[in-house]
Specification:
It contains 11 helices and 8 strands. By secondary structure, it is α/β, with parallel strands linked by helices. The chain starts with 7 loop residues before the first strand and ends in a 13-residue tail after the last helix.
């Protein structure tokens, strides 16, 4: 699959867990279908929004194989392969390649330092042991290294296998501009992350697309298509109507993602392994109000949320 033209909406698919706490493969694949049926340009798995840090190596390998086989060649599949150890990251990338992945998303690790030399050594070792194009994920500490745009440019120019960047450090829009200006032709595309909370600014600065969590993928697809068509007013309407939900998700992370998916009839079990705050009854009411506001604004063409108590 030609990856040079990757652009658009690439949601990170969450990992559903069954009543016993094990990954629910059937539910996961239904979420993949929801993403593709909603018009997503590709899917990402596993990522932070997949609770990847809680998956055992065996679970991760099994789920990557299942997602890759299910996606087939319908859309590009980006495998999350991050690990502080470059050899482990390369193994995860190879695992994704065997499942049909088009590229490997690998976070610039804080363990490799914030200078170019350390990161170049890290990514060069990854590239030596895997055959997939690399997407450098630049996330802020403590998860990532929070690299400066000039450092990203040095890394990309030194490691030809890095073809894409997912930028998530603040201010995201400015960093997208700086990376595009600094990298020149060293990378094919820069994507926004950070839950699509800054997508309008990122697109205006030349981002190729966004890689948010899954629960509003249909809204993000409609927003991106409107932007492509030059209908900025429609894109902004969708952005303004969905942003409060994205800000809510920034606090409760995967638990908010799963609850919205449940309310939209796309998930039955919302159990999560990841650390973080749990929604209480007041949070549930607020989320319901946000969903009602978004629904009233007409952002949900399908899978309208269940707003019953």
């Amino acid at each position: 699959m030609n990856t040079s033209g990757l652009s658009g909406v690439f949601p990170v698919v969450p990992t559903p867990f069954g009543e016993g706490g094990a990954p629910d493969v059937a539910a996961l694949l239904r979420l993949v279908d929801y993403a593709i049926d909603s018009g997503a340009d590709g899917v990402v798995f596993p990522g932070m929004a997949s609770e990847v840090e809680t998956l055992s190596p065996a679970e991760r390998g099994m789920l990557v194989q299942a997602v890759g086989a299910h996606v087939g060649r319908r859309v590009p599949f980006i495998v999350g392969a991050s690990d502080p150890d470059p050899i482990v990251a390369a193994e995860r990338a190879r695992e994704g390649a065997e499942a049909g992945a088009a590229a490997a998303m690998i976070m610039a690790s804080g363990k490799a330092g914030s200078d170019a030399a350390g990161q170049i050594a890290y990514f060069a070792k990854v590239a030596l042991h895997c055959d997939l194009p690399i997407m450098l994920q630049n996330a802020p500490p403590p998860n990532g290294a929070g690299l400066q745009a000039s450092v990203i440019a040095e890394i990309a120019q030194a490691v030809a296998e890095i073809r894409f960047v997912k930028e998530e450090t603040m201010p995201c829009g400015q960093h997208v501009s700086h990376i595009l200006r600094s990298c020149g032709g060293a990378v094919d595309a820069v994507f926004g992350g950070a839950g699509a909370r800054y997508i309008m600014d990122e697109l205006a600065r030349g981002a190729a697309g966004t890689m948010p969590a899954l629960e509003l993928v249909d809204v993000h697809v409609a927003l991106f298509r409107a932007w492509q068509a030059g209908d900025v007013a429609r894109a902004r309407l969708l952005y303004n109507a969905s942003l409060p939900l994205l800000m809510f998700q920034a606090v409760f992370r995967v638990r908010a993602t799963k609850e919205v998916l449940r309310r939209r009839g796309l998930l039955t079990q919302v159990g999560a392994r990841a650390a973080g705050p749990v929604l209480d009854e007041f949070d549930q009411r607020e989320m319901m109000a946000l969903l009602a506001d978004a629904d009233a604004a007409g952002v949900f063409a399908a899978h309208r949320p269940d707003l019953s108590p």
